[in-house]
Records
---
Amino acid sequence: MSMLYAPRTVVQAIEDAAHSTSTGFRFVEEQQDAEPFFTHGGIERASARFGGALQAMGLKKGDRVALILPENADFVFAFLGALRAGIIPVPIYPPTGLGKLAGYLDNTLHVVAKSGAKVCLTSTEIKRVLGTVPARAPELERVIAVETIRGSREPLKPEKVGLDDVAFLQFTSGSTSRPKGVTLTHANLAANVRAIMQLGLGIRDSVDSGVSWLPLYHDMGLIGFVIAPLYHVNTITFLPPLLFLKRPVRWLEAVTRYRGSISFGPNFAYALCVKRIKESEMKNLDLSSWRVAGCGAEPIRAENLRAFADRFAPVGFSEKAFISCYGMAESTLAISFSKLGQGVITDVVDGPTLWGEGQAQPVPEGASSAGAAERAAPIVQCGSPFEDHDVQAFALDDGESERPLGERQVGELRLRGPSVMPGYWADPELTREAFAGGWLKTGDLGYLADGNVHVCGRSKELIIVNGRNYYPQDLEWEAGKVEGVRKGNIIAFGTMKPHNDRERVIIAFETSTADEAAQVALKGEVRRVVQQALGLTVDDVVPLAVGVLPKTSSGKLQRARTRELYEVGELTLRTSSREVDPLGAAKELAKSQIGYVRHALLGGRSDE
Amino acid sequence: MTWTEETLRTELVQLFRQHAQEGVSVDGKSHLVADLGIDSLGVMEVVADIEDRFQLIIPDEALRDVDTIDDVALAIETRLRGDGRLQG
């Protein structure tokens, strides 16, 4: 199989597809009458126009251009045009509203500065709100409104682009102050596209057609539905992401209308359809063409997908169409997919053994006693790693990835293969930290069973809401700005309990204010600053008396412990950190030499 | 249907009451996130309801300056006035 695989650059793929006059990209707009369609030949011409315009601005091969383009069509053609000119695009998400502009601008500035972009291409309207960003990004020379170059007649000057050239930078993770730019080469893209399309989806060239509302500044939307389909000449129908969030039925109507056979979404998207699509909207749907319904980008909850299948089976949706996908930007997009035609498969294991001992012990079938059911944890199976790629679980402290863990042993999942990025842009230190003995550290906890990857948690403490990553440190920093909140005594975390279709965001903090009305005001203020800075809605804010947050003996806040206490409802019952949990505190003390000394000297008082 | 600033606000408060967390008092000054506990997905649901109720489309850009119910009312007034559907 490998012998027949001749990797191509994205540039080559665009040119190869250009002969097709029947397939291409369709851009649905909010008003239903406007749905411009570009054949693959049209895509070639439109991208050449944008590529030529970028060259005319003085951009050369290897230069970076930041793209903040809210219209799907502008984004696609500017992105592809840059690739054809050898210019490295840096997609940045547009501001999405609700008074969170300050945080948005801060994030944008850091990404623009880190990438060293010379030009920022955006809309007239966003150009106006960018404020001081251009002045504060040292290498940024110009901000160009896309409206001024849509009709450009500058010809695209041919540029030699090879497989080892950097294709684009994907800034999707990292804390605000230190964004991580995943660097992807054309070879990375070619390898991952082959894995996704040929090995994962069994794609039918020119026949399969996709529907996507996914944001194009996110890997699943951009690589899965813009780049990969160019290699296989598939027709794709794009919807604006906010239109889907406003009216989820428009996604399924597009599948119906254009006989879509492939569409993907994060877990929350399927849950949103179940919640929001009305009975009266069902009669126009026919989902029988939907061959592969992919789910990924955030933890998959089998019950959400089952609810979707139950709800939409009467209009032709098949539960077997679901595939569970595991991936991350650092491995281009995909790491493994479950097998086609099987639907969501869960491995039911004993929960306490899983979390307590790091062993995924299958619960015997027919174990129907109340106790066993209570302990059962269903873990979604994400299939085996793609050909030429390898995934293994390792102990977190196995710094050189020397000893892969055995079957069903939980560890950090690590990956190697041609889809793995060369590193983070202009950040050798973060790049070094991302690898262990040549393996990419995913930061996810999981295990292998029968060669299949199972993801059961994260070793990083990221909070993922609606497919976007947030660092708890960023939330804590913002909350610490509120007067009355004790700086350094704040813990933010995400929780999936009680069962919900998404991660709930909690911020607990200490305050010396005991007055109830004042505490209510503090809670509102914390929500407000976090919302404004990060655009994230906090589900619960928990004010606590001084000394209540659990700390290690050396005075470090314990995030995982706080989460546990919150989940069992004990966090708010505590009056001091030692009262409820003397045993835990003693254990912590015993673990830490520093703590022991400090305990001896200070009589158990933390000095922080 | 035509609206006045007053009927529009009454209608809007009514509509937001259905989306707010229970036991929360709702008025024009209510902050959608901090007071009503509506998250970013919830906001899009409210927007869809508003569009159906007032027969208009609220473009994404218009949401960028919105914090409170009064801000939402202003965004709707601008559009209704443009269509000649706002009296007074």
---
Amino acid sequence: MSQLTAQPDLPSVSWTEDQVIVFPAGLPGFQDSRRFIILSLPQHHPFHWMECVENRALRFPIINPMTLRSDYNPKIGREALQSLNIRAPEELCMYCIVTLHKPLSDSTANMMGPLFINIRERVGKQIIIENDDYSPRERIVP
Amino acid sequence: MLILSRKVGESIRINSNVCITVMEIDGRNIKIGIEAPREVPIHREEVYLRIQEENKNAAQGSDEDLGGMADLLKKK
């Protein structure tokens, strides 16, 4: 077993199994990372961390894209929703991964590859939008 | 890399459940039809690579910067 990298700026967070969201296919670039928890801290609101419980050094800032663009409406295939077993709209939770840049005002959200999560089954998938409606680098501050 | 020659209308089968067919050729453009199970994600390579690259960039963020970003958004 490899030693986990200590993250001095992150307090060690305890979590329970029922908080874990499984991404069966991992994420592009991180295919072996499948189990994540979402950490919501007041000082980060409306952002959250999505942290891998198999490798605590791996984490992504995420945000509900509707917070940034209330008209966000990615066209995704029915197959994608079926593969997540979404039965009702309220079971679906959507996030975009955020890339923090320097200066921070240049930071972007990946609206071309949103995360879709079935909160009932706690299973998720990064869905790639195969058209040019959204970019993987949409500016957060216009 | 395995290289196979195919004519329009001919196919290649991968495993027992993926079938790729050359549909149409128009100069340098080739239309390809893909039959695969629903759970098999299919993407144009350059699109997949963009998402992969952006995921790797995003994994670099720090707690301090996320707090700063949250403050920036609250000011808007």
